[in-house]
Specification:
Strand content: 15-25%
Radius of gyration: 20 Å
Largest sheet: 5 strands, mixed
Shape: globular
Helix content: 40-55%
CATH architecture of the largest domain: 3-Layer(aba) Sandwich
Number of strands: 10
CATH topology of the largest domain: Trna Endonuclease, Chain: A, domain 1
Number of helices: 12
């Protein structure tokens, strides 16, 4: 069989890896027969050189023929990319992931530093631990947050924590930077050395963004096939971010045509609890 190549989102070229494709399908919940069927079809249809975007689109279409729910979960990475164009929906999404751990969270807080104020995307508190979280959302999967990000964030968060401690705070601080894409190796090395905690799509190995979503069941509404892009934008604009929120409060769907409500609720249930 002719060797096939894939151009990644960062323009790097690598050999087509069927096991990688199979793994992504498995994580969406597809069974062995479905995985074998989709992999075979993609191998047959793939030219000598293709892109990750083309493979993803084809796999998504084939998986949707098997199950809307599986397709929704397979779309997760792209669904997180769609939490824009402003970063606010992503900040709310990250806040909910920390809330799932038991933190009391607030979004978009302005905190006092030594000389100036700083806006912090997510602030969390639990059992004497205080989180200060910077969120970096990107709409392109190939983008990496470089060392300038932890350098900047570290100085801001140090300024805040020193002022709060001088005012009597006894809490332990955790400084976090969360992105939906990846960090450069320099950013990781600096953060490790300075005690900053990083969370990216697949970093660290345990506790990454992808893993936390799977454990919590906190899938974003951008996973839903029953909503149009415009409808997703309307809901995100009213701070509706999670499928579980719609299940808990069906009235959140009031801006959407009522004839679609039951289908949306059914898909939310399947994605959140399957």
């Amino acid at each position: 069989m002719m060797k096939k190549w894939v151009l990644k989102a960062n323009d790097e070229k690598e050999a087509f890896d069927q096991e990688k494709l199979a793994g992504s399908l498995f994580r969406s919940g597809a069974n062995e027969a479905q995985i074998d069927k989709i992999c075979y079809q993609i191998i047959q249809d793939t030219p000598e050189i293709t892109t990750t975007k083309v493979i993803y689109k084809k796999a998504y279409q084939l998986l949707a023929r098997e199950s809307f729910t599986l397709a929704g979960k397979y779309k997760l990475k792209n669904a997180i990319l769609e939490l824009g164009p402003s970063s606010y929906p992503f900040e709310r999404f990250v806040a909910r992931l920390f809330q799932f751990q038991g933190f009391k969270v607030q979004v978009g807080q302005v905190l006092q530093g030594k000389k100036v104020t700083h806006e912090v995307d997510v602030v969390g508190n639990m059992n004497g631990t205080r989180l200060l979280v910077e969120c970096k959302h990107h709409s392109h999967a190939g983008y990496k947050s470089d060392i300038k990000v932890p350098l900047y964030v570290h100085s801001r968060f140090n300024d805040i924590s020193k002022v709060e401690q001088s005012n009597g705070s006894k809490q332990a601080y955790e400084f976090w930077i969360v992105t939906n894409t990846r960090f450069t190796s320099d950013a990781q090395l600096y953060s490790d050395g300075e005690g900053l905690k990083l969370m990216a799509w697949d970093y660290p190995k345990k506790g990454n963004l992808k893993g936390r979503i799977g454990i919590s069941g906190y899938y974003p509404i951008t996973c839903l096939r029953t909503l149009t892009k415009k409808e997703k934008g309307v809901l995100l604009g009213t701070d509706v971010v999670l499928c579980k929120d719609i299940l808990d409060q069906p009235n959140l769907l009031s801006p959407i045509d009522h004839r679609k409500h039951q289908k949306i609720l059914k898909e939310c249930e399947l994605i959140a609890y399957m």
